[in-house]
Amino acid sequence: MLYILGAGSLGLLWAARLQQADIACRVIVRNAEQLQAWQQRSNRLQFNDSTGNHTLTLNFETPNTARMIRHLIVATKAHSALEAVRQLRHRLRPAGDILMLQNGLGSQQAVAQACRAQQVFAASVTDGAWQPAPGELTWAGRGSSVVGPLDTGTPCPEWLNRLPPALFDWRWQTPIMPTLWRKLAINCAINPFTLIYDCHNGEVPAQAGAWLDSCLTELQELLRLQGVTEDLAPLVHDVIRSTAANSSSMRQDLHAGRRTEIDYILGYACRQASQHGLQVPALERLLDAAKDCLRQHQLPTD
Ligand code: NAD
Ligand code: KPL
Prior knowledge:
- By secondary structure, this protein is an alpha/beta fold.
- It has helices at about 10-20, 30-40, 80-85, 105-115, 175-195, 205-210, 210-225, 230-240, 250-255, 260-275, 280-295; strands at about 1-5, 25-30, 45-50, 50-55, 60, 70-75, 90-100, 120-125, 130, 135-140, 145-150, 170.
- β3 (about 45-50) and β4 form a beta hairpin.
- Nicotinamide-adenine-dinucleotide (NAD) binds near residues 102 and 129.
């Protein structure tokens, strides 16, 4: 049995595909009110993907259910992950595994520190899923996941190999940290600019001009300190081109009045730079500007 923590866009996307693949899973919602809301919809999810609309019946439960958990997939936002996993600590089997799906960095390490008896894995996910209405999920962009252990040397959990490739495009990568750092750098170079200029991804180079170039130079140096040597600028410009019409996840959060993951993306990058004694004035200025923008919208800056 696989457990998914968090019934948001990505958690429901995993649950829907597991259900379609006949792999048993249960979704852990935040509380009794959320459970009741699903029960009122007969636990049905309207799942829209490129093949059409499917009605799926999922299994939901609250964190205080008694069942023990061997395999946990954490699908909360980065800032909720540690608290959400802590709530379940008494249910986690020793030597079980935890797969973290969060964007950014910091939440994965925090959970690994809190759950030393379990093996913690992290995924870099490029799918795009959103909820047009409660009880509905749209898989708008079929992406892929790169998965690996936080502790290099830990083998791949066998359940991952049971995921059907037609529904789950994923690959195993160890060490995983360079992949997570690369994704973090891409998100640092795009997401905060879309916030402060309130623009689509494709407009970032024109809006940010030389400021983007300075950020890319600083991020390249930060990546180098993490052992990632490939050229960042072409990678970022490729992502900007291929997602030109997208609103970044951070901008979507801003428009929906939700807390963003800024602290686990640009905040994390700036803290790491400071710990390494690396000067990153362009990134610091970007972080300040993004926080100003969030304050203007009465949203948390962490
Ligand atoms: P979301 O806000 O839609 O879902 C998060 C869910 O977690 C919410 O339903 C919330 O109620 C739940 N939650 C929070 N605390 C909880 C707790 N204590 N117990 C149980 N549930 C709790 O967010 P999302 O879009 O699904 O994103 C989740 C993570 O995946 C983020 O880090 C995001 O950056 C990453 N991600 C999302 C997508 C996507 O397409 N949505 C793609 C790639 C990566
Ligand atoms: O990952 C993304 C996000 O929005 O968080 C990018 C790559 C910027 C695509 O929108």
